[in-house]
Design brief:
The chain has 96 residues and is mainly α. It contains four helices and two strands. A two-stranded parallel ribbon has the order 1-2.
């Protein structure tokens, strides 16, 4: 609806204080990060989030310089296409 109404969408703390990593830890190795140029899971998740056509920006929120550097790299390279977005969504749906 935001996209239809041309309203900017900001995703604040997309990692949910690290819960996204704890929830998916065991099955991430089976999923893989195909179709992006991500070197880390944080980059992959951020690319997935900002690749949504309605999303204007994401604010990961961290105080750790190493995490900040890693998050910044997500702004470069290939982002998931619709197939890649669907694949990661199915992955998350299968976790719960």
């Amino acid at each position: 609806m935001a996209q239809e109404r041309e309203v900017a969408v900001i995703i604040n703390r997309p990692f949910a204080e690290g819960a996204i990593f704890r929830t998916s830890r065991e099955s991430r190795s089976r999923h893989g990060r195909r179709s992006t140029t991500s070197a880390s899971w944080a980059q992959y998740f951020l690319k997935w989030i900002v690749s949504h056509p309605a999303v204007t920006c994401a604010i990961p929120g961290t105080g750790r310089p190493d995490h900040m550097r890693d998050n910044l790299v997500a702004g470069h390279g290939i982002v998931p296409d619709e197939k890649g977005r669907r694949r990661l969504a199915e992955y998350f749906d299968g976790l719960g």
